[in-house]
Amino acid sequence: MDTTNRCNVIIVYADDLGFGDLSCYGSHQIHTPNLDRLCAEGLKFTDAYAASAVCTPSRYSILTGRYPFRNSRAHILPGDAGCIIEPELDTMPRLFQRAGYRTGIVGKWHLGLSDGSTPIDWNREINLTPIDLGFDESFIFPATADRVPCVYVEGRSVVNLDPQDPISVSYDWECPFDDIPTYHKNPELLKMKSSHGHDMSIVEGIGRIGYMRGGRKAIWKDEDLAETFLDRAIRFLEDSHRQNQPFFLYYAVHQPHVPRVPSPRFRGATALGPRGDVIAELDWCVGELRKELEKLGILEDTMIIFSSDNGPVLDDGYEDRAYELNGTHRAAGPLRGGKYSKFDGGTRIPFLVSCPKLVHRGVSHALIGQMDLFASFAHMLGMELAPDSAVDSQDMYAALIGEDPVGREELMVEDLTCGKMLRSGNWTYLSPGQGAPFMKEVRIETGLSKDPQLYNMDYDIGQQTNVAWDYESVVKEMEERLRKIMESDRTR
Questions:
Q1: C-alpha span between 216 and 207 (Å, rounded)
Q2: How many helices (H) and strands (E) does the chain have?
Q3: Are the C-beta atoms of 308 and 349 separated by less than 8 Å?
Q4: Which of 445, 442, 313, 342 is nearest to 15 (CA)?
Q5: CA distances for 240 relative to 102, 111, 115, 237, 480, angstroms
Q6: What is the DSSP string of 356-395?
Q7: Fewest beta carbons less than 10 Å away: which of 23, 110, 335, 394?
Q8: Beta 137-141 vs 102-108: how paired, if at all?
Q9: SS3 of residue 224 by DSSP
Q10: Are 297 and 273 in contact (CB under 8 A)?
Q11: 129: buried, middle or exposed (CB in 10 Å: 19+, 13-18, 0-12)?
């Protein structure tokens, strides 16, 4: 077994961060010095994609090396959903475990918990969690910051649960609990109003999706989320170093997803309001993580990959003045669309690699998808993958270290509606689909059209000129490629 390329690995996975949200990707309104340093020391990708324009499918894909369409449950999940990764499926952390690594997850999960055979009882051990899928250590919140239950789960259990104050959770449309504060019944308790949705339980002064009763000692404080997750990530690094074990850490931060509640030290850090402030907070967390690696003397032995699960959104359900304060900032940079969208703004994301094995530094235009990390790490570790493991992941290790400037030949991604986009060389093809061309609530173009769309990305990164009628043979060829991908064997 070849171990010459082995190093520690950290994936820092942001939530709803756009292609233009970092200063190293062109932002002049949000300054991200720590990520800029990571960029300067490493490799910045311009053509990297998440698997989906929304979070759960992307998170499924990065951990399993599979396109989301291979799992019919890979859609945005409620907070009480069963786990959509089957226990027998190979996962990226399992790959690292087989190679002798210590594996950990800290942060957002949103892939469901429990085997789904019965509703989750949050007051007992949960029978299927990240520790059953290849993680030795797990400290997460179950879904998103705007969904109940608003608690941490460590291993199999809710942290700080009081048996005398049991937790109940419901995602029924009507509240089944008469004794809890709710958005419309108790507006006087709100410290942040909803712009759309998020009008069920009030937890810590914020309207959430879903209803929750009990668990008062277990409920997180929104302004503490960033530092709580950072502290646990640092503890994982320290424990791994003390045990003299190589490690893989999946550090899934919650910023800049709504509700945006920065810690006091970052309130007013930018002129863009809470959204800009939590991105500054995220940048600080990356800097603190890097300092810890330096302190432990293992920075030069660690690969750090920074990316996002999908593109940006300004108003995703709360009145935090993200639009009013945005000014000239373009969260998606030059790209069209954003979160939810079939346009590139939905899935083309920041992607930075800092690695001791880098052959070239600077900028890479290699085409790469997040699902490719699985097979690329297998190459790095000198590990063979079974035929049914990571079936859509391609070995892009040479691209990750700057040796291959091209990357994939083609890559498929999807939008909120599971509509498909195919990137092949300089062409981007958007398959026809039903639905409104504009999501009014979030003010984002969907990219949905009954007509096929074809864009030349060499000349039209903003996808403004549809040339499908001028290149009908290319459209036909790319539609055929999409069909073949969709019909491909799951166990090839």
A1: 16
A2: 8, 22
A3: yes
A4: 313
A5: 7, 26, 29, 5, 48
A6: TT-S--EEE--BEETTHHHHHHHHHHT----TTSSTT---
A7: 23
A8: parallel
A9: helix
A10: no
A11: buried
The residue among 487, 443, 485 whose CA lies nearest residue 338 is 443
Q: Render each residue's pLDDT in the chain as its tens digit; 492 residues.
A: 344 568 999 999 999 999 999 999 999 999 999 999 999 999 999 999 999 999 999 999 999 999 999 999 999 999 999 999 999 999 999 999 999 999 999 999 999 999 999 999 999 999 999 999 999 999 999 999 999 999 999 999 999 999 999 999 999 999 999 999 999 999 999 999 999 999 999 999 999 999 999 999 999 999 999 999 999 999 999 999 999 999 999 999 999 999 999 999 999 999 999 999 999 999 999 999 999 999 999 999 999 999 999 999 999 999 999 999 999 999 999 999 999 999 999 999 999 999 988 999 999 999 999 999 999 999 999 999 999 999 999 999 999 999 999 999 999 999 999 999 999 999 999 999 999 999 999 999 999 999 999 999 999 999 999 999 999 999 999 999 999 999 997 643
The answer to whether the CB of 252 falls within 8 A of the CB of 13 is yes
- Length of the chain, please? 492
Task: Please answer whether residues 276 and 29 qualify as being in contact, where contact means their C-beta atoms are separated by less than 8 angstroms.
Answer: yes
Burial class (CB in 10 A: 0-12, 13-18, 19+), 80: buried
Strand duo 168-170 + 202-203: pairing:
unpaired
Q: Alpha-carbon distance 66 to 61, whole Å? A: 5
DSSP 66-118: S-GGGSTT-SPPPTTPPPSS-TTS--HHHHHHHTT-EEEEEEE--S--S-SSS
One-letter amino acid for residue 195 of the chain: S
With contact defined as beta carbons under 8 Å apart, do 34 and 330 qualify?
no
Cβ neighbours for 213, distance < 8 A, ≥ 6 positions apart: 167, 168, 169, 177, 179, 180
450 to 275, 447, 477: CA distances (angstroms): 34, 10, 18
For tokens 């939530």, the residue is 15
Return the beta strands (E) in 86-217 as ranges: 102-108, 137-141, 153-154, 157-158, 168-170, 202-203, 206-207, 211-213
Predicted TM-score of the model (pTM) = 0.98
End-to-end CA distance of the chain: 24
Q: Which residue has the tokens 């689909």?
A: 433
Distance of CA 242 to the CA centre of its chain: 29
User: Is the separation of the CB atoms in 331 and 30 below 8 Å?
Assistant: no
